Queue: 2 jobs
Job 1
Amino acid sequence: SEAFRRWRAPLAGALARAQARGEIAMTVEAAVMADFIQNGLQGALLRAKVDRTSASIDQFKMIVLNLLAR
């Protein structure tokens, strides 16, 4: 749990800075988006291991980048 918190903090900070500069659109606060990205990525990584393909990671990346670009 502590490792996830340490990983989330810099991600949330980067998202907040990018949002403040107008580089990404976010309708939720940076910490919540960071949690969402972290949770989704962990699920995609697990699925990639099970399926032995990177398709889930590619799909996750495409969707997250699309959400951030709105």
Job 2
Amino acid sequence: MSLSPGVSKIVAIVAAMVVRIVVEMAAPSETYQIDVRDKDINRRGDYVAGLILSTGMVLPLGLTLAELDLFWIANAIYAVFMVSMSVGAIVKIVAYRRGW
């Protein structure tokens, strides 16, 4: 029984992926190991994002206490979350660019 060229390529690709997974499970290469600096950079970025998120949530709290519409409160929560995640990502990028 002969496989068509398209099917044989798919079988070859799947077989290569399975073999690579088995080899990596048996003896992991150093390519995928996380560096200590990567952990520190991620920790610092998440820390800054958490600080901004926790202090920024004062705005939705104030809007809630002012009894504004839920629309404005929800948008304020979303905006604070987006700003905190963006600043956290920027901190990580700057740390990678300037060196840690």
